[in-house]
Queue: 2 jobs
Job 1
Amino acid sequence: MTEESFNPNQNEDEPQVYAVNKGAQGWQFNRRDFLKAAGVAGAAGAIGSATSPAHAQAGDGTALTPADPPPLGTRAHRLGVTSIALSGDGTLLVSASSDQTFKLWTLPDAALIRTLDRHLGSVTAVAISEDGTLLASGGDFMDRTIRLWSLPDADYRRTLRSGPAQAIKISPDGTLLVVADADHAIQLRSLPTGELLNTLEGHRDLIYSLAISPDGRLLASGARDNTVKLWSLPDGELLQTLEGHTDGIKAVAISADGRLLASGSEDATIRLWTLPEGTLLRTINNQYNLESLAISPDSSLLAVASWDRTVKLWSLPDGILGNTLQGHSDVVSSVAISADGTLLASGSWNGTLKLWSLPDGVYLREFIDIAASGPEFEGVQYSPHDEGASVITLPCGSPIPAGSTCICNCVTGSSCSCVGFSGGSGHYWYPN
Amino acid sequence: MSMYVYTIPIQDQYLIYRPLRKLAFVGNRALGTICQNIAAGKLTREQVPDSVRAFLDGIDFFADDPPPPTPPDHAFRPTSAVLLMTNRCNLRCTYCYANAGVLAPVDLSLELAQTVIDQVAASAQAQGGSYFELCFHGGGEPTQNWQVMQQATAYARTKLIPAKVVMVSNGIWSPAQREWVLTHMDGVTISFDGRPSTQDAQRILPNGAGSSALVLETIHALDEAHFDYGIRMTATAPWRETLPADVRFICENTGCKSLQVEPAFNTVRGTHRESSEEQSQAFVDAFMEAFEIAARAGRQLTYSGARPWLLTMSFCTAPYNALIVNANRELVTCYEIASDAHALANISTIGAIDAAGELTLDSTRRESLLNRLETKQTDHCADCFARYHCAGDCYTRSTSVIDGELQVTSARCQINRALTAQLLLWYVMAGDGVWNGQTILTMPTSQLSAMY
C-alpha cells in the first residue's frame, strides 16, 4: 500500500466516489451519486445542518414494502437501535441508534421522513412530548449533549450540555425534561429552555431507565444498583426505594392509569408493583434478560424486548404469557406501543426496526433505509410501494439510468457482483 | 493554493486523504487524479465537472490546508517527572525489553526522587502550569521500590503546585498496596495481555506460574473503585489467533475503557526486533479485528504508531517535556532506558544527577538526540501521509543497532501506515462516506453482544 503507485497523469474513466462498508470479506466500496455524497458529507462535515439529504430522500415517497418474509439485510439503522419514541397521535416514530443518527418515520406505513445526524456519538435516547411538538435526543459519552428539536419537522432548537444521557423523559405537561446522566444522578430541566432545576442523587450505580406517571407527579428510575426509586415531581423528593431484584434494572414502565409499575431486570424477571404504595404485586419470570418494556394504554398488556430475539407479550396484571413475537435476528433492544394501542414497534441491536399490530401481534412491516441496509440487500427483489417505482431492476450490463445510483458494488462492463442473489441476475438502481 | 492530498490505494480504489484538513473519502483513480491536479494547481475549481465539483464543494475540499503543526520547543522545561524506580521485578515477561528481575538490583533513592520532583514542580510552576505530573515507570516493577514510591508521592503532594501521580505497573500488588494505590494515586496503567492463556504464557511469575489471577484481582479492585486506569497490552504472534480474543476477554471481564496494544516481535527477552512484511500485515489484520471488537464494546483500542486523530510533530513528549531519571541517576530521553545495558542508552542519556543532588544536563547530547529525531522526519517521513500522526514514530522501536550502527528500520512504518489507512477507512465508514475530523473510537456497550 503506497501512494507512489498513483499517477495523476494517467487517462481515466469517469470519476466516482464510494460509500465504505465493512462486510465479512473486508472493506466494500459501493458507488454512490456525487450529489448525494456531497449532501451527506456536507451534513456530516458541518455538524450543523440537520438533515442527511440522501437519507431524507430515501424516505420521501419511497416507502418500500418488502416481499414476505422481510428481505435479508434490510435495516433501519446501520448500527443498533437504542431507543424508540412514538408521538401521541400515533403518526410519527423516532428511532435512535448507535450509528450517531436518529430517524423520523411515518406510521403506520413506516416511511422514512428524515435522518438527523447532528450528534457526535451514539444517540442513546429519544423522547417526544405528549403534545407532539418537542423532541429530545440524548448522546453518549462521546457526544455528551441533549438536543431539542421541534416537531413535526425536527427543526433544531437547542443543545444542552448535560453529559452523557442514559435515558430521557418529558413530563406529560411538557414543562420538565428528565435525564438520567452518567454520574448516577437524575437531572430535572425546565422546558423549553433546558435550564437545570434540580439534580436527584441516590442511586449508587448507572441509571438505565426512567418512567413518569400520567399525572406527571411521580418519577420512577431503574438502575444497575438493583433498585427502583420513586421520586415526586417536580420537587424531586425521594419517596421510596423498591428492592428485590437481584441484578440491574434495565427498564421501568408505568401504566396509563398510573396504578402499576413494571420493572424489568437483568435477573430475567419483571416485577409488578402497585402505585403509589410500591407494594410488590407479582414477579414474572421472563426467562431471558431484557432491554425494554412498554405497557399498552388500556394497561392490559406488557411488551418485553428480550435477549432471546423476541418481543414477549404478558397480560396485566396477572402476568400470563400471551404471544411471543418472533422475527428479529438479534437482541430486541427497544419497544414502544402507540397511544391507541394498535401498533407496537420493536428495534434490535442489529439496526432493524419492525412494526406489529396489537393486540394480535401480527407482523406488519419493516422500517427500511436503503442507505443503512447491508450488502445482503443487494439483489433482493422488492415490490414498489406505488407508482413511480423506487427500485428498478435491470438486466446485467444495462447502462446506468440517468440520475440513478447502483446499489450493487459493481461497475458497468465489469463482472457483476450481484449475479446469483435470490432475485436473479440483475442490477438494481436506486433513482435520485 | 496550499494543500497536501494523498491518494492511497485500497483494494481497487483510492483513499483520498488530506491529513492537515482531517478529510478523507474513497474514490476511483479518476477522482484521485482530479484531487491531485487541484492540489498541484493544474485544475481550477471551475474546470472540475459539475457533479464532482458539487461533491467537493459539499465537503469544502477547495479550502486551503491549515498550517502544519509546529515542531516542539527544544528548551528543557519539564512538567513531568518520570522515575524509573528499579530494575527489580516480580514477573519474568518473555518479551521484557529491560531483562528486568535478573540483573543485580538497583533502586532509585528517595533523595533522588525528591530532587527530580523539586526540579519539575518548580519548572511547571514557573511556566504557569496548573499541575505537574509524577510518573513511576518501568525498567522493572515500580512497586518493588515500595517505600520510596510512597514517600515520593507524599513529598510531591507537599509542593505548592498540585501533583498528578500516576504509575505504570504489572498489577501484582498486595492487598495493602492495592488499598494504598486506590487512595493515593490519580491514575494507573496496568500491563496485562488478555486471556489467562496469553497472560500466563507471556507474563510469568519467577516461579514459572501464570500471573493472570493476581492481575485480574487488581483490575477488578480498580473497577470496583471506579479508578481511572488503562491497560497496556503486548501482543505476540500469532496475532490473528490471539489479539482479537484477548481484547474480547478484556472487554468482557474488565471495565477498562482505554486499551493500548503494541506488538513485540522478539521472542526472547531483550531488544526490539524488526518484523517481516508478513508479520507486520498479520498484526495489522489482528489489530483491526480487535479494534472493532473494542469499539463495539465502547472501549478505545489504540496503537501508538497510528493516530489519525492527532496532528503533531512529536511522537512522544518524553524527550521534550519529561525529566526522566533511572536508578543509576542518569537523565534519559525514553522510558525504556533503565540502564546502560539498553542498546540505545548511548544516544539517550543526556545528563545525570550527582549524589549532592546537582543536575547536569548535557545540552549537546540532548540537542543531538532531538536533531536525530527531526532529521528522521525530514529524511524518512517527508512524503508519508501519516507523517503528522506518528511524527517519526517511537525512536527506540524504530531504530536498531545493526553491526554496531544505529539504523532506522522500516517495519514499524509499514504497520503505522497500514493501520492509519485502515483507521481512516473506518472513520470514513462511520462518517457516512466522508471523514471530517471527528474522533470516532467507540460504540456503546449495547453493541457488544451483536459481535458474538
Job 2
Amino acid sequence: MNELVIGVGDGGVSGDPEAVLVTYALGSCIAVMLHDPVAHVAGMVHYMLPESSDCRPERELRPCKFADTAIPLLLQAALAKGADKRRLLVYAAGGAQIMNDNSGFNIGKRNCLALRKALWKFGLIAHAEDTGGSLVRTVRLEVGSGRVWLQSPQGSRWEMIPRRGAAASSREESPWR
Amino acid sequence: MALNIMIVDDSPVMRVFLRKVVQLTGLPVGEFFEAGDGEAALELLKGNWIDLVLTDINMPRMNGEEFVRELEGDEVLRDIPVIVVSTDSTRERIDQMLNLGARGYIAKPFFPETLRDAVEKALGSVA
Amino acid sequence: MNAGDFEKHFAPAAAAVLESMFFSETAGPCGASHMPGDLQARVAFWGKVSGVLSVRVSEASARALAASFLGETEESLDAIQIGQVVCELANMLCGWIVSKAESKCVWELGAPELFSAHEEESEGTEQNFGIEHGTLTLVLCLGVIA
C-alpha cells in the first residue's frame, strides 16, 4: 500500500487503488474525505479553522487551512481526477474539544459547524461522521476499497460505515405503478 | 426510474431547503411538485404521479393534518408515503400523524442528514 | 403557565435552531443592540396559553443567516428571500419554544410575518443573544394575538 500523508492544513487526492490517504492527530481540526467507489478516486483535506475571511493572505497561500476554502478545493480536485459528484461518499472526522483550549472559542465545535455549512453550500452531505468529543483521532482512507479507519492514541481502531439507505443502492418497480 | 417528489409548506424558503435535501440523497429525482397548503397539494395530486410527499402541518387553508386525512381517505393516494416535517415536536402530534398514516415525522429544526435518512427509508420501503 | 415557562426555552431554542439549519451559533446572552434597518418577524400561537413571539436581527445578520440556510453566497440573495428566511427562523424558534412549554397540549402556530420597526411594540419578555454580525432578539408577549 502506498501511504500518502496529509499534513495539517493540507490536502490531496489520489486515483491509485493501492494508495491510502492518512492524516494524524486530529484534535480540533477536521479531516474531510471524499470517495468515488466507481472511479476509485479519493481525496482528503485536514483543515484547522472555520473561516478564511479574516485571513486573506493565508487563504490564498494555504486554502486547505480553512473549512470554507478547503472543502470546495477538495471537491474540485476530486472531480478533476475523474470523480462524479453524484457518486461521492463524504466522511468527516475530528472537531474535538481539546482540554487545553482555554480560548473560550471552542474551535472544535466551530469547525464542526463550518463543516456542515460548507458541505451544504457546495451540495454535499456527510455519509458518516465521527466528530466532537475529546478524542484525538488518526484517520486512514483506502482509495481502492473506500474504507475509512479511525484510530485513537491508545491504539483502538474502528471503521466508519457510511449511511446509505436501501433506496440509494438499487431501484425496483414500485408495486402500484 | 425517476421519482416525483411533492413538497407542501407555506414557506417558500423551507421548500427550497427540503428540495435541496432530497437532491442530496442521490436518488433519481424526476420532478418536484410544490404547494403552499393542503388544498393546493390535493389539486396537484389529481393530475400528477407522486412517489413521496413531504408536508408541514401549520399551513393556511388546509393544514397538514387535514391534508393527510384526505390522502388516507383516498384508495389510491393513501399508498403514497408521507413524511411530516413540522415545528410541532410534541409527542401527541407525532403520534397523531403517525397514526394517520405518515411514514415518518421530522421535527424542525433538523439536521439535513436526518431528513435524508427518512427519505431514503420511506422510498426504500416501497421499492 | 406564565412567561417564565416559555422564557427558559429561549436559549436552547436559539442554539438548536441556529446550529442545525443555519450552521451557526450564538455567542450567548448579551445586551440589546437595535438598529434602524433591523428585520423583525412575529409568529402568533394558540394553545393552553396564547401569544406572539417576535424575532429581531440586523440586516447583516439576516443576510448571513439566509446565505447559510439556503447554501448561497450573501451577494446573490434578494430582500424577499432574506425576509422569508427571517420568517422561517421566527417560525422554527416559536415552534421549538411552544413545543417545550406546551408539550402536553394541542397548539397551533400562525403564519410568520415581517413587521416594521415603526409599529408599536408590545411589552413582553425579551432576551438577546450574540450572533454573527449582531444580535438575535426574542420577545414573547402572552395573551396578545397579532
